[in-house]
Amino acid sequence: MTHQTREQTADIVARLKLCKRLPTLPTVALRLVELANDESASLDEFAEQITFDPALAGKLLRVANSSFYGRRRAVTNLSQAMSLLGLNATIALSLSFSLRASLSQQYRSGFDTNAYWRRTLLTALACRSIAEELDEVQPEDYLLAGLLQDIGILAMDAMFGDPYAALYQQSTDHQHLLVQEAVRFGFTHAQAAAHLLKSWGLPERICQSAWLSHELIKLPHDGPPEDDKLPFYVAAAALIADAWMKEQTAPDSIELTYDSVRTLLNVRLEKYRAIIGAMIQKIPEMEALFDTQLADAQMLQDLEYNARETLAVRSLLRSHAQDPATEALENRITVLEEQTQRDSLTGLYSRNYLDAMLQHEFERATRSNTPLSVAFIDVDRFKAINDTFGHAMGDQVLATVAQRLQAQSRQIDTVARYGGEEFVMLLPETDSEQAEAVLQRMLEHVRDNPFHTQSGAQGTVTFSAGIATHMQGTQFFQNARALLQAADNALYEAKETGRERIAIHQQDATRPAASGSFPPAQ
User: Fold this and answer.
1) Residue 491, SS3?
2) pTM of the complete model beyond 0.90
3) For the chain, which terminus, N or C, has the lower number of CB atoms within 10 Å?
């Protein structure tokens, strides 16, 4: 795991001390932190401080009566609310509400504050839901840790102003934001957060989790240790929040994030879905408490429906494990699920599935610093095949090419129909040279096996391909779309220089070679 150098620590501390625009806690919240560090402080002293902030007291009463706690009898005063919540939860929730209210007023800088708070609150909710589902004693501690994970972004904006706001706006991927921060400013918002929270007097485990949770995402794991779960829970929650924000434009993002979350939490798929289900149930209350829309109503309805149907079917199957009719039903469900991900003509994966899988593989390659190659494939002179033999024969040729591509792909590869006569292939953990070898083998297999028409005639079909690779040496891309565009550009080059060939995208060392890509760090 990466450690801060003394120089980095000194630089961060110095900049924090000099900055006059740093995010600050309101007086009541600061007093609560002080009381929390005083072992002799009584519950009445906490209640007295909270009454100085009527809005905060009202929020605590509301949460005590909310679905977060499933209270049947109404809680009518602050003492009852604190007794129900417990002291730790009262402090965590008070800080959460105070931070959301005060920092929203303090910061209206160049970056998208709505997106920032949406991701932050989703991380907090996901972290609390993880803690609840994994039977942790104080879920609100995890809510607070999730809420504070990215507080360093506000600190970086305060310290560096417009240059940081521009950097934040251009960085659509969280891991790339961290990389660029380190290159540009010498340290990241994760490191800044740890020092800022320490200056507020928050517990050491909360301070450290803001930094370590970012570091954990880069490394392989097999679940959290018993004595230090917090940063693992926060790291998993951040991944879920990212997937949640992508779900509307990239369906199945939440489902595809399971593999990454599993390495951090060591949970089965059913437990992961239970965590997502808990979030779905709590979203409306969370939105009301923090005055922020966290999910589109239709997306929330679709997620809830899918989760309910999946769990219901799995429950039915488990209770009738030996029933032949149930086994047939399970097989039918598997077939139907598979069909929704497949192109009806070729049997390859569909465009929607490709989009989600590309994002998933891109993020995995970025976290693990392993190469991901993308190949854009186009059947040569396909229009001539349609014009000569008819569209029915053209469809048959496409299906045949698809079968041959699939037959020569590896188990780790994903082959999908992009549209028309175009295909896209994802090659994880594969550099450009290895990807070229795979594509060359495919090209030979397609070319050396002629297609046959109904009249007995035969013809040869070939394809051209372009390859682009992410995380190879100093070459990387800002986002998955830029990587796909680079592969498409390489395909265009292959077409322009004679067809029936494979071109590899070469990134210019002085400027991005595809829209949205970065030059290598100097």
Assistant:
1) helix
2) no
3) C
What is the radius of gyration, based on Cα positions, of the chain?
27
Fold exhibited by the domain 111-295: Hypothetical protein af1432 (1.10.3210)
Per-domain residue ranges for the chain?
24-106, 111-295, 308-340, 351-518
The residue among 89, 136, 125 whose CA lies nearest residue 281 is 125
Calculate the CA dihedral of residues 148, 150, 151, 157 and round it to 10 degrees.
Answer: 180
Query: For residue 209, which amino acid is it?
Result: S
CA-to-CA separations, 355 to 253, 361, 406, in angstroms, rounded = 9, 10, 18
Q: What pLDDT does 521 receive? A: 32
Q: Which residue has the tokens 């970025």?
A: 366
Could you say which architecture CATH assigns to the domain 351-518?
Answer: 2-Layer Sandwich (3.30)
**Residue 108 burial (C-beta neighbours within 10 Å; 0-12, 13-18, 19+):** exposed
Please check whether residue 490 is in contact with residue 466, taking contact to mean a CB–CB distance below 8 angstroms. Answer: yes
Categorise residue 135: left if φ over 0, alpha if ψ from -120 to 50, beta otherwise.
left
pLDDT at 14: 78
CA distances (Å), 373 to each of 412, 428, 469, 477, 507, in order? Answer: 12, 6, 4, 12, 14
Give residue for tokens 């993020």: 363
Residues 44-70 pLDDT 10s: 788 888 888 787 788 788 877 776 665
Phi, psi (deg, nearest 5) at residue 465: -145, 150
Distances (CA, A) of 113 to 51, 65, 125, 320: 29, 29, 18, 50
Q: Give the side-chain half-sphere CA count within 13 A for 211.
A: 19
**Domains 111-295 and 351-518 in one fold:** no
Chain-centroid distance, C-alpha 472? 22
Confidence of residue 456 (pLDDT cuts 50, 70, 90): low
Q: Which two tokens stand for residue 393?
A: 């024969």
For the stretch 259-310, pLDDT in tens is 889 889 988 888 888 898 888 888 888 887 777 777 666 665 666 555 555 5
CB 76 within 8 A of CB 32: no
In sequence order, the 6+-apart residues with CB closer than 8 A to the CB of 338 are none
CB atoms near residue 364 (< 10 Å) = 17
What residues pair up with 504 in beta bridges, in sequence order?
A: 467
Beta strands across the sheet bearing 422-428: 414-419, 422-428, 372-379, 463-470, 502-504
Per the CB < 8 A criterion, the answer to whether 462 and 435 are in contact is no
| Residue-level pLDDT at 22 | 65
